[in-house]
Design goal:
Length: 400
């Protein structure tokens, strides 16, 4: 059978659920054509291929390209000054209430052009790519006006033109109430539902709709209105839920069949049960937990007990998680949340794909996109164990 490329002499972590936790294959082979996997499995069971190019992996491990399923990669400026204020004692909530926080990034984002936003996000995207990332979700949420939210989503899409990576975009107009709507949050929500979200959807710029459900952001009633609009427009939803307090946002997200509920430090049993029933994934964000010095750990054991799928992401954003290392995020998930090595690796591959509703990535299987990360390691646990060391040998994204 003709194929474009064939990788041989590889150890595979296919991440296909089965007998071994990572779907390990000792003497593995992958064949791909037109950017899609034709075969991934034991060399002994492989059909005979006639490849254009053969890559000898010399026993290295190949896994699915990593998927960062929750980022705010596109934004103006940074918040290093705010970080310093927090070191001097101010809390995240105090800074947010005093007009800093998300709103200060909003100002910098509004001032930046679409091109400048793309330009400033490229080094962050390159950092992810350098660690084997092949799919990145990017949210809006720092423009907070129709034109500026559209500009952010366009900048995110532009990143996908400039690098060999799949960009998935999420509309997050309900990230914060912009200053011109101070004290009139309901009116801002009406603007989102009547104008912003329909405009983003019509322009084909939103793959999903997100919100920040929190006492310093939007109530469940307000999020419900936005989710109803998303539903009308045929867009899937997800939610920043129970990050700082328990608002019962996860249960609301589950009610709308959300792809994911994210953060979840303050999730309760009812929320977990609702998520399990709806098939809503938990996206855990240890970078934000670490950086904000949160002390309540997400209820991992409860999520396991209910069988809620767990994904991991960097949450790369200037305020609560200036993190561009999925490998460090895996280490943090293990160290701070006590996730197992297979849970960490699945969290950045198979379960991250699920959290994006992406059925063509996240595992090494025939029919999936040929998004591969080749690792110079002896055993998969090294990817979770090391801190600040990147063993990526090569990365393949479909045709490149
Ligand atoms: N939760 C977070 O941790 C980020 N957004 C959100 O809804 C924080 C974003 C920021 O501080 O800029
Ligand atoms: Fe976030």
């Amino acid at each position: 059978m003709r194929c474009d490329r064939l990788w041989r002499n590889a150890r595979l972590m296919t991440m296909v659920p089965g007998e071994s936790p990572l779907g390990e294959v000792e003497d593995g082979l992958i064949a791909a054509r037109d950017g899609v996997i034709l075969y991934a499995g034991p060399a002994t069971d492989s059909p005979v291929f006639d490849p254009e190019e053969i890559i000898d992996c010399h026993g290295r491990w190949i896994g699915p390209g990593l998927i960062d399923c929750h980022t705010h990669l596109v934004h103006g400026g940074d918040r290093a000054d705010e970080f310093q204020r927090r070191l001097a004692g101010a809390t995240y909530e105090e800074i947010a209430r005093a007009g800093g926080g998300i709103v200060s990034t909003m100002r910098a984002t509004r001032e930046a052009s679409r091109e400048a936003l793309t330009e400033s996000a490229l080094p962050r995207l390159d950092a992810l790519i350098a660690e084997g990332v092949t799919t990145v979700e990017i949210k809006s949420g720092y423009g907070l006006s129709t034109a500026d939210e559209i500009k952010m989503l366009q900048a995110a899409r532009d990143l996908g033109e400039q690098r060999p990576v799949q960009i998935v975009t999420t509309f997050l107009g309900a990230h914060a109430v912009p200053p011109e709507f101070k004290g009139r949050a309901d009116e801002y929500v009406a603007l989102i539902c009547d104008e912003m979200l329909p405009a983003a959807a019509q322009a084909g710029l939103a793959d999903a709709v997100d919100g920040f459900c929190e006492n310093i952001a939007f109530s469940t009633d307000q999020i419900r209105r936005i989710f109803e609009t998303a539903k009308r427009l045929g867009l899937p939803v997800k939610l920043h839920a129970e990050q700082l307090t328990n608002q019962h946002g996860a249960a609301l997200a589950a009610e709308f069949g959300a792809l994911s509920a994210d953060h979840l430090e303050h999730l309760d049993e009812e929320g977990a049960a609702a998520m399990a029933k709806a098939g809503t994934a938990a996206v855990l964000l240890p970078g934000a937990f670490y950086f904000t010095r949160e002390t309540t750990v997400p209820p991992i054991e409860m999520l396991r007990r209910h069988g809620v799928p767990m994904a991991l992401a960097t949450d790369c954003n200037p305020g609560s998680s200036p993190l561009t290392s999925p490998q460090l995020a895996m280490n943090m998930a293990a160290t701070l949340f006590r996730l197992t090595v297979p849970e960490c690796l699945a969290g950045f591959t198979r379960e991250a794909a699920r959290a994006l509703g992406h059925d063509k990535a996240g595992t090494l299987e025939a029919g999936k996109f040929c998004d591969l990360a080749v690792w110079d390691i002896e055993r998969p646990a090294e990817l979770v164990y090391r801190m600040g060391f990147n063993p990526l040998h090569a990365r393949y994204w479909r045709f490149s």
